[in-house]
UniProtKB/TrEMBL annotation, chains A, B:
InterPro entries per record: FAD-bd_oxidored_4_C, FAD-bd_PCMH, FAD-bd_PCMH-like_sf, FAD-bd_PCMH_sub2, FAD-linked_Oxase-like_C, FAD-linked_OxidoTrans_Type4, Oxid_FAD_bind_N, Vanillyl_alc_oxidase_C-sub2
This protein's name: Glycolate oxidase
Obligatory cofactor(s): FAD
Any one Gene Ontology molecular-function term assigned to this protein's record: oxidoreductase activity
Gene3D superfamilies with a match to the protein in the record: 3.30.465.10, 3.30.70.2740, Vanillyl-alcohol Oxidase, Chain A, domain 4
Length: 495, 495
């Protein structure tokens, strides 16, 4: 932003605040600087931007009113659910409006006969499961943050979770949405049917990280609660063995509900934090959960156990009851936070590789770690090759943060090099836009831009996210000034 | 087309023919009128248009050359696989090029470790299964035409099949594609990973019926061959009972691989054609197939049998071996053709309703039939509410074809009225474009058009399909003349 533009932008925001306060009520609009700072980041806490205005609409109409007002004023907007995202997808825009959906928490309908729930975007992921439980159903995708993350945020980021190995990602569970395009037009996409007629725009909206518009209602699939759940914890000498066991299980045609791996450093952190009591001396553990009809689970369980033993598991425990099952998961679920016990700072990375190169990539990560002196703990969804390396560092040691960020980036390069992807379930957001050209050609990115510009020619919906460089959409010459939007938005990077 | 434009169009085609013959070889280009007529329709045989030119590229480069040449000449193009589609999606354009993919039949890679196959678009659906079988895998979506239909056509129409109840449609099995946009640019969408980074453009391409471009390579998921398959044939007094049994089975959380229903008239036709020996006196039969681990199949089988008995099944047969299993399926698979034994002409309809209103909608169809004197046989995917009413008529009786078409349209209205859709798996194509406004609002259709125009501003990719009225994409004023493109293309409707 140049100095000359600042007064015009401020005046646009002042006008918007007045207009939206009248339309939505005084409580729905925040423009006090101290209160605005509450919203300066999402789960990717090292990027911080204070928004110009925060709006908390009480219903879908309020969202439409806000988007229309932004469109008319030419002011950018960013949608935010619970703010738990790990890629900075909900990072505010310094000259824009942050539309917070946390008041849109109505469960519109639980329809067990058609196995669907219709909810507002601010509804918490786990609350859908709670509402459907009485009828014997649940909502399958389970990000680690499922107790606090919103379904709208899940849709925007196409969130995954431990049980997505068997059940699929958010995109496999959203069958319909009411959607507000950046010009304020309201569109219905899909519905309760498994697959809609016409272009699958719903599929393109899921995972678009708020760059195409805002959803105001979501229809999701409900899954029948399984008859039986069995959970196994296996200790291995190292990640090679655990990786080979993973490949063997999947190769045998067994698809566990979840198949999670932790390496020695991650186990150490978890033990320090929650005393999970994993097999002593394990270089890696696997948590394998099977669910389904009891007869199926029993048959598959024997097969999983056999493959674990054949690939060097020296201790296998089977959860006798829900309490023991929870104790297996406690170490895994606490792992991200637990590394705080063994390192003052860390980066949560998210990359994907084919299962078949698991051992090789883990070796290369270990080499990187040795060469740089930066420790890396690995906790991840082994079954679908979705790595979550935790890159540990101490920000008080000069230069260590930069080295950690280099290691983190080099891990993504390893993923790409091995035929994988720069994100499995956390999204591109603010954090990984710069990595997109390593994975996609110019023609690929231009083609994505076709969709962006079709929906959002003025670049108002979550600008600066996903794409590495701002591109002009033909019709709006001079709209973007060519500066990197993150710089333009005045981001304070901690690193 | 006005008289004045005809010479210009003819000259454009002549130039294209010359250019493509030089580039692709003489055998790859057909412009002889008699030979062109071979391609005048697809599986929807009552719409016929002779294309101006047919091109049969030998490889992906040939497809790119053809699309680029069309773009430069401003000539429309239509892609065609095996021509088995039932909605006229591959109906040629009278002034356009038909790009036939039948020479692109290379299976590039079978990758069992990652459970993927990479194939050219002309590869026959069943040939993927044949190629993967040695490794214990198969390709799950199984249209009735799977012995002859191509994977490119399956992708374009997002084809279904009897076993898509459990395994999902084509869109759930395509993870990557190489795609030629209407301007000739080649883009890679997705890959072998379960879910790609960036916008899900691949999802939008699947089911876009050739209106966004042409695929030249497809990566599909391979599914492990099941350990056990069990098939049950149940005779019911009528469709109400069979429908209630269907709802009960699904409601109990059992998802059979397939769950198919035939009514009395469909059974009569099948008996006349293939003597399938279904239970005598049945007003409806259900074929239920379970697959998976043997232990699971056995447990679920008992449950299915129980629900069938509870809802009035008077005879239940269990296939003792593959031969008996094939005999159960013979009646179902022959049903479409079999109605030729009991009626000189028929329309195959394709609509979707929530399972929960199955009985009601079948009653309403029966009423329609009674009121109009037009017989309707029902053969369908009961498990996912995908109806295939066969509307019978005699074209030699004046007015009967029109009445049949009215009944067929009224059935779609019933589907929409009950919260369903105008197509489950056959696509919109030429046949159902006129029904789109009954299902979608103006804003919904405009939003789909955003995508169309982003990819194909000149309207060259399969024009006249899917959308009810041609719309101008801002930048190309006067391109379409405002006439309905089907009329414009000189369609001869049999009805």
């Amino acid at each position: 932003m140049t100095i000359d533009e600042a007064p015009a932008r401020r005046s646009a925001i002042t006008g918007l605040a007045r207009r939206l306060r009248t339309a939505l009520g005084p409580d729905a609009v925040i423009d006090d600087h101290q209160r605005l700072r509450t919203y300066e980041c999402d789960g990717l806490a090292h990027y911080k931007v204070t928004p110009a205005l925060v709006v908390l609409p009480a219903d879908a109409t309020g969202v439409v009113t806000t988007v229309r007002a932004c469109a008319e004023a030419g002011v950018p907007f960013v949608a935010r659910g619970s703010g738990t995202g790990l890629s900075g997808g909900a990072l505010p825009h310094a000259d824009g409006v942050l539309i917070v959906t946390s008041r849109l928490r109505r469960i519109v309908e639980i329809d067990p006969a058609n196995q669907r729930a219709v909810v507002e975007p601010g509804v918490i992921n786990l609350d859908i499961t709670r509402a459907a439980g009485a009828d014997g159903y649940y909502y399958a995708p389970d990000p680690s943050s499922q107790q606090i993350c919103s379904i709208g945020g899940n849709l925007a980021e196409n969130s995954g979770g431990a049980h997505c190995l068997k059940y699929g990602f958010t995109t496999n569970h959203v069958t319909g949405a009411e959607f507000v395009a950046p010009d304020g037009e309201v569109v219905r996409l899909g519905g309760k049917a498994p697959d809609a007629t016409g272009y699958d725009l719903l599929g393109a909206i899921v995972g678009s990280e708020g760059t195409l518009g805002v959803v105001t209602e979501v229809t999701v699939r409900l899954v029948r609660l399984p008859e039986a759940v069995r959970t196994l914890l296996a200790g291995f000498p190292g990640t090679d063995d655990a990786g080979a066991a993973t490949s063997a299980v999947i190769g045998a045609g067994v698809v566990p509900a979840a198949m999670e791996m932790m390496d020695a450093l991650a186990i150490e952190a978890a033990e320090a934090a929650v005393r999970c009591g994993y097999p002593a001396g394990a270089g890696a553990v696997l948590i394998v959960e099977l669910d389904g009809p009891a007869a199926e689970v029993d048959a598959q369980f024997a097969e999983v156990e056999r493959h674990c033993r054949a690939h060097g598991a020296f201790e296998i425990r089977i959860a006798a009851d829900d309490a023991e099952r929870a104790s297996f998961w406690r170490g895994r679920k606490s792992a991200f936070a637990a590394v705080g016990r063994i390192s003052p700072d860390y980066i949560v990375q998210d990359g994907v590789i084919p299962r078949t190169v698991l051992a090789e990539v883990l070796h290369r990560i270990a080499e990187l770690s040795r060469d740089t002196g930066i420790r890396v703990a690995n906790v991840f969804h082994a079954g679908d090759g979705n790595l979550h390396p935790l890159v540990l560092f101490d920000d008080s040691v000069p230069g260590e943060a930069e080295r950690a960020e280099e290691v983190s980036g080099a891990i993504l390069d390893l993923c790409i090099e091995h035929g994988g992807s720069i994100t499995g379930e956390h999204g591109v957001g603010s954090d990984k836009a710069k990595f997109m050209p390593r994975m996609f050609t110019e023609a690929d990115l231009d083609t994505m831009q076709l969709l962006r510009c079709a929906f959002d020619p003025d670049g108002l919906a979550n600008p600066g996210k996903v794409f590495p460089t701002p591109r002009l959409c033909g019709e709006v010459p001079g709209r973007h000034k060519g500066a990197h939007p993150l710089q333009d938005a005045g981001i304070a990077e901690v690193f």
